[in-house]
Amino acid sequence: MGGHHHGPAPLREDKGFQAWYNMRENLGDYYKFTKRGARANIIFMGIIPLALGYLGYSTIGKYTFDDKRRSQPIYEDYVPRKL
């Protein structure tokens, strides 16, 4: 079957991958919490999840996806246009 039967296959290290790995491994040692970093954290960990949660809770029961056919609208108050 496929594969090398004379020991492990030699692996070549990718320098870019190793640099990325080292950067991610040591990020906590060099990260400085600044105003810019705080702003990004507030946006990505606060405002966006709250907005998505509000959007999700505000549309509960508005759209029904169960037992719908392709020709049936998912929105209950949908009025088709006359062509």
From TrEMBL:
Keywords of the record: Membrane, Transmembrane, Transmembrane helix
Residue intervals passing through the bilayer: 42-60
Name the record gives this protein: Complex I-B15
Organism expressing this protein natively: Saccharomycopsis crataegensis
